[in-house]
Structures are given as structure tokens and as C-alpha cells.
């Protein structure tokens, strides 16, 4: 279901919002823990390209993306309202 | 406690051992990963761990489900600590019980390998003369991977 169709026009714009979270090296690089991007939808690859362009040195080739707490593939489509996270190489344990 | 969790306080090992122990268990393996002072000749002062907590707990539970599928009859608990950890502190604990010991050993080792692959936790090493985020992902974590 497209939630946007339920909104009146004044609220529609607010729904063009993708949330992204930053951790570890990327949190320090961007100086942010999270921010919102005004886009209705984009692919994971487009999000990575955006990040590289916005934050030089992002290192998109080593970064994975989680959408709503699940690892996503580069061709997956992110929708407005989704909660995304950039996952640099993990080092738990 | 939750069977798959991220904590900020010191890990209390006995809680997780008690959780996996039951009358049908003939073996319990407990792995604890600790903060090491020397790595390749470089002295660590302390470590700072960070996690994407909700996803980390979900992926720990996913690893638990993978283990129970591979070794039916085991019971598992996994906890990882975040924040500032000092030399010899426990960073991660994996407790596995099984009717017979072989499964408990094998499943336990599987768990730490998978943690290092897919769980969104990051470690920063702090040395006397610098610091660095550590990370060398082996492969794409993938979706619904076995």
C-alpha cells in the first residue's frame, strides 16, 4: 500500500523522507548519527552514490546498507519512511 | 536478560550459562572473547565498541536460529558488550548447551565466525599514539543467508 496516497497534499511532502543512520567511522566522518534525505524512493546503489558525493571518503565500495534493520542488496528500492543504516565493515567479537 | 542481547554493563557469565542449562543438556560450552593488550606488536590501551543495537540483537537471534537448524537440540545465548572496554574485559560471550558435547563445541565456534561476518558491531582500538576503527568484512552479509 502506498501510504502517500492517503495523505492530503500538504502532508505529502513530509512523506518524501528517508532516514539514514551512521555508525563508527562513518559517524565520525559525517559528524552525524542520523539524518533525513528528501526523496520518495531510491535504490540502495543510489543511496550509496549520494553518500559518496555528499561525504568524500565515504568508501561506498566497502559499505553495506541495511533497510529497516535488514541487509539490503544494491538493486533493492528504498521507500519514503524507510529507516536505513550504512554498515561499514563490522568488527564485533 | 535476553538470550540475544547487546549490553553496556559488564557481562555476567553465569546468567547465560544458567539460561542454556536444562535437564536434557549433557554439555555446555562457554566462549568468552576478551580485550587483548597486544595485537601484532601494538599495545592497546582500551577498546570502544559501538553497535546498531536493534539490528545487532536481531542478527544475533538470526545466528541462534541458524545454529538450532544445523544442530537440533542445542540451546543458545549470545551477549556482546559495547562502550569502553579495558584489557581482559569480556566483549562477547556465547553459551551453548546440547545433549552431547560435539554439537556444543561446533555450534559455539560457528557462532563467533558468524558474529564477525554479519552483526553490526564495530570496534575501535585506542593506542598510546592513535586510534582506529577496525573492520575487515569477509564477504557480503547477504539476505537470508544460511
Number of helices of chain B: 3
Number of domains of chain A: 1
Examine the secondary-structure arrangement and name the CATH architecture of chain A: Roll
CATH topology of chain B: Aldehyde Oxidoreductase, domain 3
Number of beta strands of chain B: 9
**Major sheet of chain A: order of its strands?**
2-1-7-4-5
Strand content of chain B: 35-45%
Percent of residues in β-strands of chain A: 25-35%
Structural class of chain A: alpha+beta
The string of secondary-structure elements of chain A, in order, is HEHEEHEEEE
The pair of chains with the biggest contact is: A-B, 22 and 32 residues
Number of helices of chain A: 3
Q: Rg of chain A, please?
A: 14 Å
CA-based gyration radius of chain B: 16 Å
CATH class of chain B: Alpha Beta
SSE layout and pairing:
The complex is a heterodimer of chains A (93) and B (146).
Chain A: H1 9-12, E1 18-21, H2 24-30, E2 34-37, E3 41-43, H3 44-54, E4 64-67, E5 70-71, E6 77-79, E7 83-87
Chain B: E1 4-7, H1 13-20, E2 27-34, E3 38-39, E4 42-51, H2 53-70, E5 75-81, E6 83-86, E7 90-98, H3 101-118, E8 121-127, E9 130-134
Parallel strand pairs in B: 1-5
Antiparallel strand pairs in B: 2-7, 3-4, 4-6, 4-8, 5-7, 8-9
Helix pairs in contact in B: 2-3
Amino acid at each position: 500500500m502506498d501510504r502517500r496516497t492517503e495523505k492530503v497534499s500538504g502532508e505529502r511532502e513530509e512523506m518524501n523522507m528517508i532516514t539514514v543512520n551512521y555508525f563508527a567511522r562513518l559517524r565520525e566522518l559525517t559528524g552525524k548519527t542520523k539524518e533525513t534525505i528528501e526523496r520518495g524512493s531510491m535504490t540502495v546503489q543510489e543511496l550509496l552514490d549520494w553518500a559518496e558525493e555528499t561525504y568524500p571518503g565515504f568508501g561506498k565500495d566497502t559499505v553495506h546498507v541495511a533497510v529497516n534493520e535488514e541487509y539490503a542488496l544494491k538493486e533493492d528500492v528504498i521507500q519514503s519512511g524507510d529507516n536505513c543504516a550504512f554498515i561499514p565493515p563490522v568488527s564485533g567479537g | 536478560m535476553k538470550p540475544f542481547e547487546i549490553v553496556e554493563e559488564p557481562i555476567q557469565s553465569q546468567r547465560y550459562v544458567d539460561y542454556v542449562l536444562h535437564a536434557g543438556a549433557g554439555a555446555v560450552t562457554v566462549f568468552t572473547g576478551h580485550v587483548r593488550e597486544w595485537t601484532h606488536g601494538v599495545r592497546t590501551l582500551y577498546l570502544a565498541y559501538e553497535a546498531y543495537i536493534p539490528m545487532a540483537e536481531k542478527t544475533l537471534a538470526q545466528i541462534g536460529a541458524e545454529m538450532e537448524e544445523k544442530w537440533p537440540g542445542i540451546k543458545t545465548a549470545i551477549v556482546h558488550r559495547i562502550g569502553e572496554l579495558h584489557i581482559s574485559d569480556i566483549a562477547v560471550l556465547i553459551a551453548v548447551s546440547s545433549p552431547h558435547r560435539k554439537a556444543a563445541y561446533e555450534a559455539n565456534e560457528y557462532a563467533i565466525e558468524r558474529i564477525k561476518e554479519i552483526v553490526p558491531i564495530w570496534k575501535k582500538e585506542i593506542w598510546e599514539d592513535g586510534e582506529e576503527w577496525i573492520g575487515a568484512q569477509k564477504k557480503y552479509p547477504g539476505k537470508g543467508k544460511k
